[in-house]
Amino acid sequence: MGFLNWVVAFSILCNFLATSTLSISSFLSKEELANISVNFLNLAKRPELFDWIVRIRRTIHENPELGFEEFETSKLIRNELDKMGIFYKYPVAVTGVVGFIGTGKPPFVALRADMDALAMQEEVDWEHKSKIPGKMHACGHDAHVAMLLGAAKILQEQRDDLQGTVLLVFQPAEEGGGGAKKMLESRILDNVDAIFGLHVSTLSPIGTVAASSGPVMAGSGFFEAVIKGKGGHAAIPQHTIDPILAASNIIVSLQHLVSRETDPLDSQVVTVAKFKGGGAFNVIPDSVSIGGTFRAFSKESFTQLKQRIVEVITRQAAVQRCNATVDFDTKKRPFYPVTVNNKALHEQFRNVAGQMLGIDKIIEMKPTMGTEDFSFFAEAFPGYFYLLGMVDETEGRFESGHSPFYRVNEDALPYGVALHASLATTYLLEYQLKSTTRDQNVHDEL
User: Do you know which InterPro entries this protein is assigned to (predicted)?
Assistant: First the structure.
């Protein structure tokens, strides 16, 4: 029997539970939760495990790969899973890997890590700088993979004590490619009961987490439009139909969608970040292309915003005697749903993180207009996404994600490993306890 002492906890709790209506994490006492959480944190902090996790993270960092190109990263993951004796399926959504630890039977809880890097040049001068020009792990996905592998190693050591199955979801193409959506389409996650995901954060101190229930990140989409007019010499504009003027009016009108058509309490964003047209100072071009993003915190608002973007672009173009077409290209850039944290999983997270780190180390996560394709998972089944603090003022400034100067504080890695393992383990145990209690109540009534 492992340190979790399942049999004793199971029998004692089943004898004393009175109803099946308690929320998740009502089943384990504070002392039992603390034992599980603290034991996992101690295991995660073992020097040999910490050094191994760091080596994994640095190897991935040196060899960044873009979305759906993570072949070497995937190979590294599979090699490590093979060494641990963990069964997995590959390929899933081109480069993805899904590992399995436990009984192979329900319940099924998933832990997710994204694998892809960004198309940018690293400017951090250190020993393990990216070896691939123009590519960099500038959002911490190398750390995410390393932490999930660390959790896998601990969970595999405790596999005989698991009361179900943990799925290790190594996901490709989070950065705009919709890798989570493609993993769902593979049907390999059809039986998942819940999923947890994390992201390292440069906004919170090391040893803290940021989390909340409900919507935490916006739904988002991209649009591109081509405005066609009639080109000609800039000195005789009366003989042209100016698409640059039309595009300029369109951009101004798009801003009115939020400032004049949206409830101020319903956060939305429309941003035009691309404008291409013309190649000379004295020539009005035949056409102009613009592109941008739109974001909202509800399906209704998102759908309305999408419809109005099309109407504004096409009708404003017509006012200027131009024609316009709008393309959302969802095959290449799928719409991301709103990321919504499950209420019951939030209670479990607060209990687990509170016992591991201290309740004062849990920071309220403020909703952000940023997006995360974990939202596809959380839309398909109960999900929970949180931020892992890694700021240490003695280590200097930590730049935000997508910066060429982005750094990861590797001292934060054991916390992510332990939270992964603790959340999966306690979820499986409490799921079984709830099921047993429910069956016992039905038996008593009969």
Answer: Amidohydrolase, Bact_exopeptidase_dim_dom, ILR1-like_Hyd, Peptidase_M20, Peptidase_M20_dimer
Nearest partner of 192 among 129, 106, 304, judged by Cα? 106
At position 111, the amino acid (one-letter code) is L
Cβ burial of 87 (10 Å; 0-12, 13-18, 19+) is exposed
- Following DSSP, what letter does each residue of 160-180 receive, concatenated? GG-SSEEEEEEE---SSS-HH
C-alpha to C-alpha distance for 88 and 104, rounded to whole angstroms: 11
Using CA atoms, how far apart are residues 218 and 203, in angstroms rounded to an integer? Answer: 18
Cβ-in-10-Å burial (0-12, 13-18, 19+) of 396 comes to: exposed
- Rounded Cα distance, 176 and 328, in Å: 13
Which residue type is seen at 387? L
Sequence-distant (6+) residues with CB within 8 A of 34 are 355, 356
Statement: residue 122 has pLDDT above 90: yes
User: How many helices (H) and strands (E) are present in the chain, helices listed first?
Assistant: 11, 16
Give pLDDT tens digits for 310-327.
999 999 999 999 999 999
How far apart CA 312 and CA 310 sit, in angstroms, is 6
Q: Is 234 helix (H, G, I), strand (E, B) or coil?
A: coil
Structure-block tokens of residue 231: 């080109």
The CA-based dihedral angle spanning residues 66, 70, 72, 78, taken in that order and rounded to the nearest 10 degrees: 150
Q: From CA 372, how far away is CA 27, in angstroms rounded?
A: 31
Q: Rounded to the nearest 5°, which phi and psi values hold at 213?
A: -90, 155
What would the pLDDT profile of 20-70 be if each residue is shown by its tens digit? 333 444 566 777 777 889 999 999 999 999 999 999 999 999 999 999 999
| Distance in angstroms (rounded) separating the CA atoms of residues 395 and 406 | 13
Please give the annotated binding residues for Mn(2+), written as ranges: 139, 141, 175, 199, 402
- Helix axis angle, 47-62 relative to 413-445, nearest 10°? 110
29-36: long-range contacts at Cβ-Cβ below 8 A with a sequence spacing of 24 or more?
30/351, 30/355, 33/351, 33/352, 33/355, 33/426, 34/355, 34/356, 35/3, 35/4, 36/4, 36/352, 36/355, 36/422, 36/425, 36/426
Residue 157: alpha-carbon gap to chain centroid: 27
Annotated binding-site positions: 139, 141, 175, 199, 402
